[in-house]
Design brief:
Elements: H1 5-15, H2 37-42, E1 52-53, E2 63-64, E3 71-76, H3 77-83, H4 88-91, E4 98-101, E5 110-113, E6 125-129, E7 132-133, E8 139-140, E9 143-144, E10 155-162, E11 176-182, E12 190-198, E13 203-214, E14 217-228, E15 239-252, E16 255-268, E17 274-275, E18 299-307, E19 313-321, E20 326-340, E21 345-371, E22 381-382, E23 388-389, E24 394-419, E25 423-442, E26 446-449, E27 478-499, E28 502-520, E29 530-550, E30 553-564, E31 586-598, E32 602-620, E33 625-644, E34 647-660, E35 676-687, E36 693-703, E37 706-707, E38 715-716, E39 719-730, E40 733-740, E41 748-750, E42 761-764, E43 769-777
Parallel strand pairs: 6-11
Antiparallel strand pairs: 1-2, 3-10, 4-5, 6-7, 8-9, 10-11, 12-13, 12-43, 13-14, 14-15, 15-16, 16-20, 17-42, 18-19, 20-21, 21-24, 22-23, 24-25, 24-26, 25-27, 27-28, 28-29, 29-30, 30-31, 31-32, 32-33, 33-34, 34-35, 35-36, 36-39, 37-38, 39-40, 40-43, 41-42
């Protein structure tokens, strides 16, 4: 008979040299065998190092991944290095079941999970640090969680949990929780200093050092400074950032205490859909390297409405820099206390404070490109700087959109657990408060020359009253001043029992959410046009059975039932559908069936899933026309590795089928998510004289068709993308060359979400780019 899950976990920890820190993915578990195939056959292969996870377990207790009754992926620091992600969201492509549109720049991605319906941002994605969400709501309009977090050398690993027990723990996320674990330091002083550059002018310096301050008191300090024009070169340093992290850990005889602080100021150009064809259906010639913003057009007068002090309203103009794009200027501070008490009791408390600004600036396209002459009877025109614009020159309406958000959140997750021989019980209390203070000015479209750094067309050259900056009759699409605060209190209980090779677990969460949100929409005159003050109580649950077939294989089955509450969203939720009497709560039920196998030379984790959602709002905000969708999705996620001598092959695949079950689009596929995405990542280790070694690696991504809308009108074609890299180690020096999108594939990640029917605009994946770095490790 095989060991019980707890015993297996303790045994794995006991025999691991770095039991808590060595938690990388199987891609990092290269076999220590000679490169020659003949020699490899003559020597016994090593078994895989035990992987341990802490996400999705009661109180964050360590568990062997093979014993987990849920779908979770681990991404080590070495995996992150090989991925060389362009953003935090780009890294999430390593997690099966997740579709990521990271083509919008360093911030503000669109992330989708397991066919859950979403109009963009990341409705069903939580980003956590050391086990606690950086911001409890996964998405506000123009703000999703990955915007708040930056990847650097301070990360030990990332764990990505899909579905499973998510609805019961932490902030109750029903979709994906990505938990970034910070490096802690140890008895030995270790560190890295790295310089990176690229073919798009990147200048970046990373650093990290860790060690021991005194007996059992460890530190880790790290961060980066970076600047570049951006992968779509803007003609100025459009991407600038810096980050500093300190992490302190005190080891106790019966546990540990941890405190960390992470301060970030990082932003980059907001890349948007571009004109693929003009109003006559002719190709524009615009490619994936294009961005409209440039040094000559980045500063724009943006209109804001307000009270004139006499019962009316007036419009004022303020300068804003569209070159700042999207980003995060703030901090995440947190910590934890983990104690092993007497008689099998354990106590865990995790806490975190997030505070800062998450702003959005960019030129948003409005409609198809047209010729200059079509706007004035066939004549040439001029820009506002007096330059001539030929009649056949393409121009397009762009709105300088501004959304400025000041956010703050505090969360605390406390749990107490008791372990007996054959079962374990955990009770917990999660409390969180968060708030937002935001100002919008979006719409405001005016004609510009179509092209990087294109100038605004002079009002005298356009037969359109809205072109005049002083003209207020056109108004604003959305002119918003809003403030909101919310709080959540949740009690949860989870238990597991062991019946030979069978483990049963279940959990329940009772949650109360209070939300107050006041929106001054129309003229910003200090008078709220919409006030929401609501309190909702919900019960969510999960239950699973896990059967250990052998020491290295098992199966599990799980069901969970959860909800997504409405968040501060003047654009989609409250501004429209709430006024129609909806509670805006989305109900989600999921079923999972998983198989796990980990052998000496290969591993496979396969999870079949089916989910049903009810209540996701979709519609036209301007027309106040909304549907509450019901959807279904089913599919399978594959996460596997194959080892043969110095060769390794990693598989990451998702096959799914989605269907809208209600409304005018019933029978269609859910928008923006492919039915298939397959990623194959081979690598080969090389050894040379004098201790020099290298690894050559790559990834082939095969992405299926998608639709950019729920009406399934705009089809986004399938595509293949190839990445290639090499890492060479010479004593303490490490050199890395990474090529993203090797063949410069011009594929689309989305159409134009602001267009009805067929769209002339679309957003390309990022063009080919090359990064090079040299690091010194000590």
């Amino acid at each position: 008979m095989t060991q019980k899950p707890l015993a297996r976990t303790l045994n794995a920890l006991k025999h691991s040299r770095r039991p808590v820190l060595w938690l990388g993915s199987m891609a990092a578990l290269a076999l220590a065998v000679p490169a020659q195939a003949q020699e490899a056959e003559q020597q016994p292969a090593m078994g895989p190092i035990e992987e341990v996870v802490v996400t999705g377990t009661p109180g964050g207790a360590a568990m062997r991944k093979l014993d987990a009754s849920f779908a979770i992926s681990t991404v080590s620091a070495e995996d992150i290095k090989r991925k060389a992600p362009s953003s935090t969201a780009d890294l999430l492509k390593t997690v099966p079941g997740v579709w990521v549109e990271s083509s919008g720049g360093v911030s503000g991605a669109n992330i989708f999970v397991r066919g859950f319906p979403s109009g963009g941002d990341a409705d069903f994605v939580t980003v956590a640090v050391n086990g606690l969400a950086v911001y409890p709501p996964p998405t506000l309009s123009f703000l999703e969680n990955s915007t708040i977090f930056r990847v650097d050398e301070t990360i030990e690993r990332m764990e990505g949990l899909r579905g499973g027990p998510n609805p019961v723990y932490s902030n109750g996320q029903v979709g994906l929780t990505t938990n970034f674990i910070l490096k802690e330091g140890g008895p030995d002083t270790e560190g890295v200093l790295k310089y990176s550059t690229s073919d798009f002018g990147l200048q970046r310096v990373d650093g990290m050092v860790s060690g021991e301050l005194s007996d059992d008191l460890y530190y880790m300090i790290g961060g980066y400074v970076s600047s570049s024009e951006g992968i779509r070169e803007a003609g100025f340093d459009a991407e600038e950032g810096n980050q500093f992290t300190i992490n302190l850990t005190k080891r106790l005889d019966n546990g540990k205490i941890n405190l960390f602080h992470r301060a970030t100021d990082d932003h980059g150009t907001w890349y948007l859909p571009v004109a693929l064809q003009d109003s006559d259906g002719n190709p524009t010639g615009i490619d994936a390297s294009y961005t409209q913003v440039g040094p000559a057009n980045r500063n724009v007068l943006v209109p804001y409405s307000g009270s004139d002090g006499m019962g009316g309203t007036e419009t004022t103009f303020e300068m804003r820099d569209m070159g700042k794009g999207r980003g995060w200027d703030g901090s995440v501070t947190g910590g934890s206390i983990e104690l092993d008490l007497a008689n099998g009791w354990t106590f865990t408390d995790r806490f975190g404070l997030t505070k800062g600004d998450a702003d959005t600036y960019g030129f948003v396209p409005d409609g198809a490109a047209v010729t200059m002459g079509s706007l004035n009877g066939g004549l040439a025109g001029t820009t506002i700087t007096g330059d001539e614009v030929a009649a056949n020159t393409l121009v397009q309406r762009f709105g300088p959109w501004v959304v400025e958000k000041d956010i703050e959140a505090f969360s605390n997750d406390l749990s107490l657990a008791k372990q007996w021989d054959d079962y374990k019980l955990t009770v917990g209390y999660y409390a969180s408060t968060w708030e937002v203070d935001e100002i919008w000015s979006i719409g405001n479209s005016k004609y510009y020359e179509l092209g990087q750094n294109g100038q605004m067309i002079s009002p005298d050259s356009v037969d359109d009253a809205c072109q005049d900056f002083d003209q207020t009759t056109c108004g604003f699409k959305y002119d918003v001043d809003a403030i909101g605060d919310a709080r959540e209190n949740a009690f949860y209980m989870a238990g597991e029992t062991y019946l030979g090779d069978l483990t049963l677990d279940a959990g329940v969460r009772v949650v109360t959410r209070e939300t107050t949100y006041s929106v001054d929409d129309g003229a910003r005159d200090g008078i709220a046009d919409l006030t929401l003050d609501t309190e909702e109580d919900k019960v969510t649950y999960t239950a699973a059975a896990n059967w250990a077939l052998t020491e290295n294989s098992g199966v599990f089955v799980r069901i969970n039932d959860g909800v997504k509450f409405p968040d501060f969203d003047a654009y989609r939720d409250f501004r429209g559908d709430f006024q129609n009497g909806s509670d805006l709560i989305i109900d989600v039920q999921q079923y999972e069936l998983g198989y796990k196998l980990s052998q000496a030379n290969y591993s496979l984790y396969a999870t079949g899933f089916m989910n049903e959602t009810k209540g996701q709002p979709f519609g036209n905000v301007a027309l106040n026309d909304f549907d509450r969708l019901e959807t279904e999705a089913m599919g399978v996620e594959l996460d596997g590795n194959l080892y043969f001598g110095e060769f390794e092959l990693t598989l990451n695949a998702t096959l799914q089928d989605t269907e809208i079950k209600s409304g005018d689009d019933a029978g269609n596929s859910v928008q923006r998510q492919p039915d298939s995405q397959i990623r194959l990542s081979p690598s080969y280790n090389l050894s040379f004289a004098n201790g020099v070694d290298a690894v050559v690696y790559g990834t082939a991504s095969i992405i299926g068709d998608r639709y950019s809308d729920n009406g399934n009108i705009n089809k986004l074609p399938s595509y293949e993308k190839f990445d290639l890299g090499v890492i060479m180690n010479v004593e303490n020096l490490e050199f890395q060359l990474a090529v993203d999108n090797l063949t410069d594939e011009e594929a689309l990640t989305e159409g134009d979400p602001r267009a009805a029917g067929v769209s002339a605009n679309g957003r390309y994946i990022l063009p080919r780019n090359v990064k090079f770095s040299i690091g010194y490790q000590f």
